[in-house]
Amino acid sequence: MRTRITELFGIRHPIIQGGMHQVGLAELAAAVSEAGGLGTLTALTQPSAAALAAEIARCQAMTSKPFAVNLTFLPSVNPPDYPGYVDAIINGGVRIVETAGNNPKAWLPTLKAAGIKVIHKCTSVRHARTAEAIGCDAVSIDGFECGGHPGEDDVPNMILLPRAADELSIPFVASGGMADGRSLVAALALGADGINMGTRFLATEEAPVHPNVKAAIVAASERDTRLIMRPLHNTERVLRNTAVDRILEKERYLGEAIKFEDIAAEVAGVYRRVMKDGETDIGAWSCGMVAGLIQDIPTIRILIDRIMAQANDILRTRLKPIFNASEECLD
Ligand SMILES: Cc1cc2nc3c(=O)[nH]c(=O)nc-3n(C[C@H](O)[C@H](O)[C@H](O)COP(=O)(O)O)c2cc1C
Fold this sequence. Notes:
The protein is an alpha/beta fold. It is built from 14 helices and 10 strands. The strands form 2 sheets. Strands 1-8-7-6-5-4-3-2 form an 8-stranded parallel β-sheet. A two-stranded antiparallel sheet has the order 9-10. Helix 3 links the parallel strand 2 and strand 3 (about 65-75). Helix 8 packs across helix 14. The two termini are about 30 Å apart. It binds flavin mononucleotide (FMN).
């Protein structure tokens, strides 16, 4: 399948694996790229720029295909070593960067001068338009369904994607709630040039996370995620567990007076213990509503091949006959 996204990134299938904290390691990114999609390393999971450089080299040893690095720009009093991470990306010969969080404007001249293609992830049409205006090559549109940070507008992809199609000239991918060939065809119909997935890639054989995390996603339904940190205007969609129930209880009784410190025990620094040690109940971790569509833990190649086969089947055996029948009616 050829779209503006496969052309832009030089990949076989219009399927991207979004950056995921403590998950976007070389094993995952390389497996996605080897299977014809675009894998992504997550820069901030690496403790230093030197560690990111080593992770990029490890990924390059596993695949000769293109892969991206995610740079998440967080509001922070003590920001991570972004200049060091950007140097590691450029010196490592990475050709694609996924930016997320704050406006990446300050970093674009450096990235573009190095010939790097930038895809910015955003949750609203106005932010996507800004990304286009500042020179991003593509955007990833994260709908309200998505795992992680859906923003504060609460617009699901059924509305957000056609709105983005109406307003953007650069290619964009649909992100949030994407799981299979049906998602891909729907995303294309709504104007996107491909899909970006997080949660679906977590429940795969190669995802370098504890089996408990994968099992929790398979066990979950589409009704099992919750939104936390809304009063802090930093909303995150997470899988419901006992820690998340505690957070929501605190948010209820503290209301707008809540501070990050009130929930830090359940939110800060828990990812490693969840993802590596499988302590899935100790804190909040991102998960999309799409968990309801995930029933197995396939290899990444099987997953991607299955998505493409299902998408082709829908186009050929469902949509083409409808199209042909409509044509006949017109005759
Ligand atoms: C466990 C997990 C961790 C994530 N961490 C990040 C991150 O560090 N930076 C980022 O830009 N997006 C992050 N995301 C968001 C994903 O890249 C992607 O946009 C999102 O998962 C898409 O929605 P879906 O889960 O419905 O596929 C994370 C998502 C998950 C599930």
